[in-house]
Write a structure and sequence with these properties.
By secondary structure, this protein is mainly β. 2% of the residues lie in helices and 72% in strands.
Length: 372
């Protein structure tokens, strides 16, 4: 059979004992016929052998080129050796090519257990440039289990593919499990010489786990640590961040220190019905020998384009700054109070000037803006 852009040929025999010997050759000169957003061509063939009630097959792509969006796959070659097609399909799969000029290869052994609705992939080996993924995985319904190892000698290659400014070295592990049918996962990763959007880090680690990830309120426990960080010209020697809880109620903390000071903060984030409520429980700052701390828990509420701050009180050098504010569609209001706040807190700016005295003031901003 032949039509514009498509050539298809088939031949073969079926014996009196229902033994198959079928060959199929195909050439698709315009893949947009089956993938409207793509361009390219594919040449493929298949050979089906064995009893009709349980045949095996060998298939291959001998040449292929695909263009989709900003991605170009060239020199595509693939082989599939499949057995037990009717009773429990198994396949050995191999693929090579180049993706945006990066060498690409993939190999795995797949199997389908129709009785258990289970699909397995063993001996996974995927390589793209200097990045690789290896291990095994299995899917039972919507849940997965398995173990994967990730490694990259140049994240810049992946960053370029994704249109992101990312560089560095990565190695990590992903473990998947599904106790009682609920999807869980753990991730451990180590990064070196990391650069992202102008920020740099000498080293970073990620240790995270999640439970019931496909449920309505998945659980999380994650820790991130980084050293030798530079952001917008500022240096941070050490940074650690932790998050634990569920998607609806998450406890987070961040600690960082550098040449000019340190910060330590903790909060609980609650998400419900389109609203995010943040209870700021801790905020300790030290900048250029000026220390400040949160005096009591403060509440920050975000809903749509609105934001409210309530009961924010920060103490520094025996003085206090208090703030209540609301940014809403009806207008913006704010009440700021300074109680015996020493002007010496301006030393945090690192100026050579030193200020003396204290400030007592109260300022209420009337409702401004909004829709009338």
């Amino acid at each position: 059979m032949e039509s514009p852009g498509v050539q298809l040929g088939a031949s073969g025999t079926v014996s009196a004992r229902n033994e198959l010997d079928l060959k199929i050759d195909a050439a698709l000169n315009d893949v947009s016929r089956v993938l409207p957003a793509a361009k390219g061509n594919i040449v493929a063939n298949a050979h089906v052998l064995g009893p009709a009630d349980n045949p095996h097959a060998d298939a291959a792509i001998s040449n292929g080129t695909l263009h989709y969006d900003r991605f170009t796959l060239t020199g595509l070659k693939a082989t599939v050796a499949a057995t037990d097609l009717a009773t429990g399909p198994k396949a050995k799969i191999g693929l090579t090519g180049s993706l945006n000029d990066l060498p690409l290869s993939m190999a795995l052994d797949g199997a389908v257990d129709t009785a258990k609705n289970r699909i397995t992939a063993d001996g996974i080996k995927i390589a793209l440039g200097g990045t690789s993924v290896s291990g095994k995985a299995a899917w039972l319904g919507t849940a997965a289990d398995g173990n994967l190892t990730l490694a990259s000698t140049d994240l810049g290659e992946i960053g370029k593919l994704l249109g992101q400014d990312i560089h560095g070295v990565l190695d990590g592990q992903i473990a998947l499990s599904a106790p009682k049918g609920k999807q869980s996962a753990t991730v451990k990763a180590r990064l070196k010489s990391l650069t992202a959007s102008g920020a740099t880090a000498g080293a970073a680690t990620v240790d995270a786990s999640g439970t019931d990830l496909l449920g309505d309120d998945p659980g999380f426990d994650a820790a991130v640590a980084a050293t030798q960080i530079k952001v917008a010209g500022e240096s941070i020697d050490h940074l650690s961040a932790k998050a634990a809880g569920t998607l609806s109620t998450l406890n987070v903390s961040v600690d960082a220190s550098g040449p000019s000071g340190s910060v330590s903060t903790a909060a609980t984030v609650r998400a419900k019905s389109g609203e995010t409520a943040i209870t700021l429980a801790k905020l300790d700052l030290a900048i250029n020998q000026v220390q400040a701390r949160l005096l009591n828990p403060a509440e920050i509420t975000l809903r749509g384009g609105e934001a409210r701050v309530a009961n924010l009180a920060i103490g520094a050098r025996d003085g206090t700054l208090r703030l209540d504010a609301a940014l809403t569609e009806q207008g913006n209001t704010a009440e700021l109070r300074l109680e015996r706040l020493p002007l010496s807190v301006l030393d945090a700016a690192g100026s050579d000037l030193h200020f003396m005295g204290t400030v007592d003031a109260a300022k209420r901003l009337p409702k401004l803006g909004g829709h009338h």
